[in-house]
Write a structure and sequence with these properties.
With 440 residues, this protein is of the alpha+beta class. It has two domains: 10-228 and 423-436, Thaumatin (Sandwich); 281-387, 2-Layer Sandwich (Metal Transport, Frataxin, Chain A). It has seven helices and 26 strands. Strands 4, 5, 6, 8, 10, 13, 14 and 25 form an eight-stranded antiparallel β-sheet that branches. A five-stranded mixed β-sheet has the order 9-3-26-16-17, with no helix packed on it. Helix 2 (228-243) runs antiparallel to helix 7.
């Protein structure tokens, strides 16, 4: 965890539990309503989740600039923000003058609003806005908002000024009433890696395209279709009607009922533990029974090749793995980073390969399907076809153009030749294009 700096993270559970007793309604508050968690703090130790899935890192202060264009297909009153860490690991924002802004906190422990001009207005609907990122930026996000977001600064545990970003989970965050989304990227001055992520929530529909100086064909991830947030909220309501689970509570709306965003179940569960009850319990028990007498084969898609696994005494053991896997809980499956899916120092290459493939199989509910004894082997048409499953991920992919874009942490786990993760990457980028409100 990246630190709460004197503000109790447990308070977020109180906010979310209170809000989720009824439909979630965003009621923006002030600085006293800010709750700092690992999900909305950017400091010198922050590592965005996508960075754990790639070898590309920000490593140097190379001078290459990155042109960025944003096509506004959404509405008037749109703004862009850029946050990240410079080559020294210091949190920064991009200012309207095209230079990095280094916020300075006063050390009081109270978040202070960043008043520098960091809101970059987009041109009118149907038009394109051009900016230039001056140099390398890691753990970075391009934020697009319908209205102006509020960013704050506070000293972290090392006495370094950190950036407090808008929180999608806190219905009383000062920016809670604004609809926004972001694209994550790493750019080291030569190489870029970017993705569209809905691992924690769905907001404004975004798409992206990457053009390289080499002249290679543009890489495109079209992202969410226009109107996707309303459609996904409706999908959550329909799923609640179908199975009686609390999917409809993942939607966040204004007081008038306008959909602002949809929270992922892992974010919901982190603030409101236990509300999904034993949703996966029967499925988990069936998996354990089936693979007590036959191998579950994990294709590591690496040097270890295929690894045979068997269940026994409530644990799954895999050949060549340094430790076994206990039965997961629903929270473990939603987050893919706790219980049997937590990766710790000392875990060997086999373990680090099994974790994402095993959690992806549980999330997509493919372990009991025909040919599900080899993971990954089934394609996207087999994902989320039986319940229990992650219906948030299912519905999000339904409203993504081509079904592409992270809807959970290990959405980049696919059979060889497939890619559902929604990433673009390459050397010497000449343009990163972002579209808002549907690809064009």
């Amino acid at each position: 965890m990246r630190g709460a700096f004197g503000l109790a993270v447990a308070a977020l559970a109180g906010f979310i539990s209170q809000a989720f007793a009824d439909p979630i309604i965003a009621r923006p508050g002030g600085v006293d309503d800010i709750i700092i968690t690992e999900d909305n703090i950017l400091n010198s130790t922050t590592v965005r989740e996508f960075e754990t899935n790639t070898v590309l890192k920000t490593t140097s202060a190379q001078a290459g600039v990155l042109p960025i264009s944003v096509v506004n297909n959404f509405d008037s009153g749109m703004y862009m923000y850029l946050t990240g860490k410079d080559s020294s690991g210091t949190p920064v924002l991009l200012g309207a003058n095209g230079q990095f802004v280094y916020p300075q906190a006063d050390g009081s422990g109270v978040p202070q609003e960043i008043i520098a001009n960091v809101a970059l207005p987009l041109n009118a609907k149907g038009q394109t806005t051009q900016i230039t990122l001056p140099r390398a930026l890691g753990s970075a996000r391009i934020w697009i908002a319908h209205g102006q977001l509020k960013f704050f600064t506070v000293r972290d545990g090392k006495g370094v000024s950190a950036i407090v970003e808008p929180s999608s989970a806190n219905p009383n965050d000062p920016s809670a009433g604004i609809q926004w989304g972001f694209i994550e990227f790493n750019y080291d001055g030569t190489t870029i890696y970017a993705n569209i992520s809905f691992v924690d929530f769905v907001g404004i529909p975004l798409g992206m395209g990457l053009t390289l100086a080499s002249g290679a064909q543009q890489q495109v991830v079209q992202g969410l279709q226009g109107g996707a947030v309303n459609n996904i909220c409706n999908g959550m309501k329909q799923q609640t009607s179908a199975d009686g689970q609390i999917w409809d509570r993942l939607c966040v709306t204004t007081s008038s009922g306008q959909a602002l965003r949809v929270l992922a179940p892992n974010l919901y569960e982190s603030g409101n533990p236990g509300q999904f009850g034993g949703y996966y319990d029967n499925y988990i028990n069936q998996v354990w029974n089936q693979y007590a007498s036959q191998d579950l084969t994990i294709n590591t898609q690496a040097a270890a090749g295929n690894v045979a696994c068997r269940t026994s005494n409530n644990q799954l053991t895999c050949a060549g793995d340094n430790r076994a896997y206990p039965k997961p809980t629903v929270a473990d499956i939603w987050g893919c980073n706790s219980g049997p899916f937590a990766i710790i120092d000392g875990d060997n290459d086999v373990h680090r390969a099994v974790v994402p493939r095993l959690c992806a199989a549980f999330t997509r509910s493919t372990l009991l399907l025909p040919s599900g004894n080899v993971q990954p082997s089934l394609g996207a048409s087999s994902y989320y076809t039986v319940s229990p499953t992650n219906h948030y991920s299912r519905v999000v992919h339904q409203y993504e153009a081509g079904g592409i874009g992270y809807a959970f942490s290990y959405d980049d786990v696919n059979p060889d030749g497939e890619n559902a993760s929604g990433t673009v990457a390459g050397d010497n980028p000449s343009l990163l294009k972002v579209t808002v409100g549907g690809w064009s």
